[in-house]
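Troubleshooting: if your tokenizer reports a length mismatch, compare against these two reference records.
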Amino acid sequence: MTEALRLLTQMNPWLALAIAGLLEVGWASGFKFVGPQRPGISLLVGIAMLASFGFLWLATQKLPIGTAYGVWTGIGAVGAATVGILAYGEPATAIRLVCIVLIVAGIVGLKLFSGATV
């Protein structure tokens, strides 16, 4: 177990942040199926949530907190909106798509101008 933790703490913080964001998309999208009648799915959503926070924590050990949190929430927002459109039939209006593009631009900007040297 110690070796696994050592490897995780040496992970590239941007990779950890990307994994955290993708896990956030999973648990946020999974909320539609959570409930006492679906304990297995509820457990998976909870595990994805904890893992997402864990990888976010790893990223914040080497990246500025504002950058890490902004990128994490941005990945989650864009991912959840995309899942909503593709899987749940939510509207894909032009203004919603423009807003998604603006969030992606913000994520890229935070990455490019984070001042992080890793």
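Reference record two:
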Amino acid sequence: MNASIAIQVLPKVETDSEVCRIVDQVIAHIEQTGLSYYVGSFETTVEGEFEELMELIKECQYIAVKSGCPSVMSYVKISFKPEGGILTIDQKVSKHHR
């Protein structure tokens, strides 16, 4: 594993319930990839290989649009270490969970 991303998908729709419905579709797609992921209140973190994560970012945009929003904005953070050895989700957050 040589990368992790944090992605926040913001569908441009009218209601909060529509935002949640579309974001749920995006998260379901992330889950289906089999990659390790963590859903936070503002963004979802995913671990994997750089190329597959870049493809996932693209797919998340299309999933949101196919789920019914006319446009989508996304904020993405990328941690990339070509030789591998990035900090895992567990290393970053497990000590903070109650």
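Descriptive notes for reference record two:
- Helices lie at 16-32, 50-66, 89-93.
- The mean pLDDT is 95.
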